[in-house]
């Protein structure tokens, strides 16, 4: 289905900045169209790590997915904006909390979303966050990650430069730290019994963005 981009963006009014930000994100970034279908099972709750202003919640609901949703982010201003927009959108079974993931990880069992967040944590903390996220994926759940990958391509360099620029002009309070490699991700996920599928997800952007969907493997050998 096509997302109702204007209706979603209108949930952020009267804040014009967030209205135009969300409208342009939804129009240009293939992430929000692609991710809801990864969360097929309605009964499995999703924890959205580094949820920002909570666009994923709106996209899940617009795609007919009513699964319980909790979004956490270290930025209290974004969490407040996410709460207001969720209320304006009339979304039920959704909660937002301020949480610094480098300090605390919320209790959870089910599915996890980790969209464009890993690169803002120091390398060591990235591994720990991935381990924590992988551990709370249930048998029916999935871990859905969108990240730039360190693979030596021009797209990879462009993604790093843009993340650094975003911090320098104040779009992102946290600064870019490091991109993981596909091998880094596979290794940690496999260690926690998850099998991952990688797909490029850069659409018409110049970025090296990948969608990684990891599920609990059915065989011990995975
Ligand atoms: C590029 S935004 C992605 C927002 C959202 N996941 C999306 O895709 O629309 C990255 C988010 O990660 C959050 N973040 C960065 N470091 C964090 C940390 N240590 N704990 C929690 N959130 C963090 C930022 O505040 C920001 O909202």
Protein traits:
single chain; 222 residues; alpha/beta; Rossmann fold; seven-stranded mixed β-sheet; 18% strand; binds S-adenosylmethionine
Descriptive account of the structure:
The chain is of the alpha/beta class and 222 residues long. It has one domain (30-216): Rossmann fold (3-Layer(aba) Sandwich), CATH 3.40.50.150. Helices cover 37% and strands 18% of the residues. It has a seven-stranded mixed sheet with strand order 3-2-1-4-5-7-6, with helices on both faces. Strand 2, helix 5 (76-88) and strand 3 (94-98) form a beta-alpha-beta unit. Helix 6 (123-135) crosses helix 8 (182-191). The radius of gyration is 16 Å and the shape is globular. The relative contact order is 0.14. The site of S-adenosylmethionine has 17 residues, from loops.
- Portion of residues within helices: 25-40%
Write the CATH fold name.
Answer: Rossmann fold
Find the CATH superfamily: Vaccinia Virus protein VP39
Using the 3D structure, state the CATH architecture.
3-Layer(aba) Sandwich
Total separate domains: 1
Q: What is the CA-CA span between the terminal residues?
A: 33 Å
Determine the strand fraction and express it as a percent band: 15-25%
With strands numbered from the N-terminus, the spatial order across the biggest sheet is 3-2-1-4-5-7-6
How many separate helices? 8
What is the class in the CATH system? Alpha Beta
Structural class: alpha/beta
Mean pLDDT, as a whole number? 90
Low-pLDDT sequence parts:
none
Cα radius of gyration in angstroms: 16 Å
What order do the helices and strands follow? HHHEHEHEEHEHHEE
Q: Main beta sheet: strand number and arrangement? A: 7 strands, mixed
Report the bound ligands by name, code or SMILES. S-adenosylmethionine
The tally of beta strands, per DSSP, is: 7
């Amino acid at each position: 289905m096509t997302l109702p981009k204007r209706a979603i963006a209108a949930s952020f009014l009267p804040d014009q900045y967030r209205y135009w930000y969300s409208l342009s994100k939804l129009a240009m970034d293939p992430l929000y169209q692609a991710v809801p279908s990864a969360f097929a099972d309605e009964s499995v709750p999703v924890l959205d790590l580094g949820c920002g202003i909570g666009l994923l919640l709106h996209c899940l609901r617009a795609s007919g997915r009513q699964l319980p949703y909790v979004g956490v982010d270290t930025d209290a201003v974004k969490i407040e904006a996410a709460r207001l927009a969720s209320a304006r959108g009339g979304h039920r079974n959704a909660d937002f909390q301020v949480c610094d993931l480098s300090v605390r990880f919320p209790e959870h069992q089910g599915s996890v979303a980790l969209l464009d967040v890993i690169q803002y944590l120091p390398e060591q903390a990235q591994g720990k966050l991935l381990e924590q996220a992988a551990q709370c994926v249930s048998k029916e759940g999935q871990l859905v990650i969108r990240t730039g990958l360190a693979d030596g391509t021009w797209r990879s360099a462009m993604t790093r430069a843009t993340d650094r620029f975003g911090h320098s002009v104040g779009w992102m309070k946290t600064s870019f730290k490091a991109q993981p490699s596909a091998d880094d991700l596979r290794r940690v996920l496999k260690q926690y019994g998850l099998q991952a599928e990688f797909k490029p997800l850069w659409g018409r952007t110049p970025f090296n963005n990948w969608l990684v969907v990891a599920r609990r493997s059915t065989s011990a050998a995975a």
